Amino acid sequence: MSHRNYMKSAIAMAILAATSAAFAQDVVQGVVYHDSDGDGVRDNGEAGIAGVGVSNGNDVLLTDGEGAYELPFGSDSIVFVIKPAQWRTAIDEKQLPRYYYNHKPDGSPDSKFAGVAPTGPLPPSVDFPLHPQEESDTFDVIFFGDPQPRNQKEIDYIAHDVIEELVGTDASFGVTLGDIMFDDLSLFPSLSRSIALLGIPWYNVIGNHDINTDATHDRFSDETFERAFGPSYYSFDYGQVHFLVLDDVEWTVSEKSGKGGYRGGLGERQMEFIRNDLAMIPEEQVVVLLMHIPLVDVRDRHELYRLIEQRPFCLSVSGHTHHHEHRFITDKDGWKGPKPHHHIINVTVSGSWWSGAPDERGIPHTMMADGAPNGYSIITFDGSKYHLDYKVAGRPSSYQMSIFAPEQVTATDAETTDVFVNVFNGSEKSKVEMKLGKQGTWQTMQRQVKSDPALVRLYEYEEAIKDKPWRGMSKPKPSTHLWHANLPSNPSAGTHFITIRETDMFGRTHVGRRIIRVLPNPK
Question: Is the pTM of this model over 0.85?
Answer without folding.
Answer: yes
